[in-house]
Amino acid sequence: MSTVPAFKRLPRAVREQQMLDAAVRVFSRRGFHAASMDEIAEDAGISKPMVYAYLGTKEELFVACLHREGTRMMQAIAGAAAPDLPADERLWRGLRAFFGFVGAHRDGWAVLYRQARGEQPFAGELAAMRARLVEVVAGMLDHALRAEGREIAAVDLEVVAYALVGASESLADWLADHPEADPEKTATRMMNVAWLGAAQLLHGVTWRPPTH
Amino acid sequence: MSTVPAFKRLPRAVREQQMLDAAVRVFSRRGFHAASMDEIAEDAGISKPMVYAYLGTKEELFVACLHREGTRMMQAIAGAAAPDLPADERLWRGLRAFFGFVGAHRDGWAVLYRQARGEQPFAGELAAMRARLVEVVAGMLDHALRAEGREIAAVDLEVVAYALVGASESLADWLADHPEADPEKTATRMMNVAWLGAAQLLHGVTWRPPTH
DNA sequence: GCGTAACCCTACGCACGAGTAGGTATGCTC
DNA sequence: GAGCATACCTACTCGTGCGTAGGGTTACGC
């Protein structure tokens, strides 16, 4: 008997996205280990074997979440920071996009950074993404430096970039925990710390340890 | 029959430290969840019920590790940054002590930051410690500001401090993953990023978002 | 209108690891 | 050297949750 459609039996592509949505929510709420596949399935309005059929084991599912959220974030940033702008403008737009993304996807951020960092199986995945970020930032700095006719050793550049990325991640955490905070304002503050320091470096000013 | 002592039957205080040593090692190697109490016990050269008798459940054990390592770190920093020095000197000494500690206690650092951050039960514990760090840094900045006859809103100060702490943590992670890197040099680099930017802020220079 | 493939379910097996019960040996006090 | 506390062990119980076996139902091609 043909009852109401009962909105079931959706095509695979749709269900996979629903599952990923649910997974991101649950992982972010409980953490990787405390999250159970049963809860994810229930949250997605589907039964467990379906999750296994489509997305594989728990680890694979988590990696899939990581990938989707990470890609979205990188796209948000890349889309905002056009490569033909001056360095400070690029940095500003990149930061604004970044904090905007975190503010809008607090769940995704929690999955991405708070969970993935601790668990060895995913640390590599995460490190690769961070490396791409660092590379982008280092590229900006290097570009600005050459425009000034200066150069810095590649290692130093990378470490500075690493510090900036770290500071941003830290503020992003802060933002995720303060729902009332304004992403734009946070980006401005980060820009103040980052750019004022970086600009000094770009102009050849450096700090040297006291010798005694 | 009195055989060789077989180095057993140690007083509680000693065994507790051995257990904590083992726990820090195993937690840092495996992560909180993947670490088993059996492995910790074995690594400590003792049987599992002893661990339960002395340090309690797995969570309590982890908190104990967190406490010990955290206290050691805070002491290392506090001992180095005497409060009567000028701000830049304090910051420098604090950073040097911090990176020195991380370089020497990579295991402890991994437990502290990589594990504790992700798992909700310990996030609070960790946040409290970080809050103390942020407070110290914010205090330095504030002190330096007043010396210059300036003031900044407390929130901004805290956020800047938060960013600096985050950048340091990030570089500490980097340091923990690069055994060949020199803690002192890392501290110098961090000082460059942190102080050059902060000094600008202290002198009233700020960056403002473009208005268009 | 009938096969076949995609979608979806209920119900289980099974390993792993936290925590404990219950007992033994060794040193310390008096 | 009797009594007692402390250090220590082997050997279990038992919940939890991952992953699967095996079977049902709807759509779609032909």
UniProtKB/TrEMBL annotation, chains A, B:
SUPFAM superfamilies: Homeodomain-like, Tetracyclin repressor-like, C-terminal domain. PANTHER family: HTH-TYPE TRANSCRIPTIONAL REGULATOR RUTR, POSSIBLE TRANSCRIPTIONAL REGULATORY PROTEIN (PROBABLY TETR-FAMILY). Residues 13-73 form the HTH tetR-type domain. InterPro entries: DesT_TetR_C (IPR054129), Homeodomain-like_sf (IPR009057), HTH-type_TetR-like_transc_reg (IPR050109), HTH_TetR (IPR001647), Tet_transcr_reg_TetR-rel_C_sf (IPR036271). The keyword Transmembrane does not apply. The keyword Transcription regulation applies. It comes from the Bacteria. Residues 36-55 bind DNA. This is TetR/AcrR family transcriptional regulator. It comes from Micromonospora tarensis. Pfam families: TetR_C_46, TetR_N. Keywords: DNA-binding, Transcription, Transcription regulation.
